[in-house]
């Protein structure tokens, strides 16, 4: 089932701006504070919308990004703990799913030959799935895990689904020189959601999640995902607004 969704990344999880979000039947909640929950629940109730939660939601990792495949035991443990807390809260609030990142972003170290790290991270995802549906978002610049085949292996190990982050995919396809459309082709049956925004290596340095871009690769990906049967979530951020009207025009036409 196709569904058009809005991420609160559009307002960078600022509760004061929540009523400026466009109307949608489904929202994805990003990185709020615990004191924001009452406002969020009232907003969702008034709009009669369903929702999912992007981990860590109101919790915070020791570092900015999660570390599910870090060589550092403490960072992995912290990530697993916060994800579990997030999963329980999301379930209690009535969320349909949580989104988690896997593996580490910007990781150069070789970790896949470390059986302990691999086994612990797979066990963790399966623990989360016992609580709530799990969508695994592809990250960027993990030298040992970025191909479509890597994610097929992960899904077969966990029975989770994939949230394809278009920005991260474009970054990786540029960094590791692979075809982003072929990545989607291989993973299509496992895709439950796409995060829609633009990124390339230079743009990402200036804009967290740029709404739009003119690259051929981006346009090919946008045309390819039209044929998916999944959630289509706008995940642009408000630090760069140029092209915002174009992403909404595309989204409306899905």
- Biggest sheet overview: 8 strands, parallel, barrel
Mean pLDDT across all residues, rounded?
A: 97
Helix content: 40-55%
CATH superfamily name?
Divalent-metal-dependent TIM barrel enzymes
Radius of gyration: 17 Å
What structural category characterises the helix and strand content? alpha/beta
Output the number of helix runs: 9
Count of discrete structural domains: 1
Give the strand order, joined by hyphens, for the main sheet.
1-2-3-4-5-6-7-8
Please name the CATH architecture. Alpha-Beta Barrel
Low-confidence runs: none
Task: Indicate the CATH class.
Answer: Alpha Beta
The amount of beta strand, in percent, is: 15-25%
Principal-axis shape: globular
What distance separates the N and C termini?
12 Å
Report the CATH topology name: TIM Barrel
The total beta strand count reads: 8
Q: Secondary-structure element sequence?
A: EEHEHEHEHEHHEHHEH
Describe this structure in words.
By secondary structure, this protein is an alpha/beta fold. The chain has one domain (3-252): TIM Barrel. It is built from nine helices and eight strands. It has helices at 37-47, 73-93, 115-129, 148-158, 166-176, 180-187, 201-206, 216-225, 244-252; strands spanning 3-7, 26-29, 50-54, 97-102, 133-138, 161-165, 191-196, 231-234. It has an eight-stranded parallel β-barrel with strand order 1-2-3-4-5-6-7-8, surrounded by four helices. β2 (26-29), α1 and β3 form a beta-alpha-beta unit. The protein is globular. The chain starts with a strand and ends with a helix.
């Amino acid at each position: 089932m196709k569904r058009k969704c809005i991420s609160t990344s559009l307002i960078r999880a600022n509760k004061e701006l929540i009523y400026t979000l466009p109307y949608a039947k489904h929202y994805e909640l990003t990185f709020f504070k615990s004191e924001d929950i009452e406002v969020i629940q009232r907003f969702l109730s008034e709009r009669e919308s369903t929702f999912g939660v992007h981990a860590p939601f109101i919790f915070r990792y020791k570092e900015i990004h999660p570390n599910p495949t870090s060589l550092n035991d403490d960072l992995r443990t912290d990530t697993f703990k916060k994800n579990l807390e997030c999963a329980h809260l999301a379930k209690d609030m009535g969320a349909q799913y949580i989104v988690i990142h896997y593996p580490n972003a910007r990781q150069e170290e070789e970790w896949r030959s470390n059986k302990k790290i691999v086994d612990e991270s797979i066990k963790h995802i399966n623990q989360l799935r016992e609580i709530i549906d799990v969508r695994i978002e592809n990250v960027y610049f993990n030298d040992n895990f970025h191909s479509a085949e890597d994610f097929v292996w992960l899904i077969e190990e966990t029975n989770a689904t994939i949230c394809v982050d278009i920005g991260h995919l474009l970054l990786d396809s540029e960094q590791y020189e692979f075809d982003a459309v072929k990545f989607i082709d291989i993973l299509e049956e496992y895709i439950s959601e796409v995060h829609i925004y633009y990124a390339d290596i230079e743009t990402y340095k200036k804009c967290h999640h740029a709404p739009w871009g003119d690259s051929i690769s981006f346009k090919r990906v946008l045309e390819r995902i039209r044929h998916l049967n999944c959630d289509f979530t706008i995940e642009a951020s408000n630090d760069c607004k140029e092209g915002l009207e174009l992403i909404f025009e595309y989204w409306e036409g899905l």
